[in-house]
Amino acid sequence: MWKRRIKAPPPTKQSIAPVTARSPWHAVSITSSAACCPAAMGLLGTRFLSKEAPGLPLGACSMSAKCRCSYQHHDDRRGLSRRTPDVWNPGRVSYSGEERRRQRGRRSLDLK
Known about the structure:
With 112 residues, the chain is mainly beta. Helix content is 4%, strand content 13%. The protein has a domain of 48 residues.
C-alpha cells in the first residue's frame, strides 16, 4: 500500500549565539562609570561568584532611577596569585650559609 508521508518540522533558526559553558568560579564585580551611591561604593572592586552576586540596582541604592552601576566579568574570583615565592627552590634562591652536609651519608652502603 501507499505510505503516508509525514512532513518534517521546519528547521529552527538560531538568532541567538550559543551559550558557552562558564567555569564554576566565574565571578563579577560591581563597577560604575559615574558617581554612585554609598551602598555601591562599599562594594566596588569586590568580586562575587556570579551565582551569589547582588542584583542591580542594589537594595539600599539611593539612586535607583539613575543607577549607572554594572557588572565586570572575571574568569576567576581571585584577583592576584596569593602564592608566596618558593624559597626552597634552588633555581630561585641560592643558599649562602655554611654547608653542613657531610661527605658520607648514614646508610650502611655509604659507610663502606
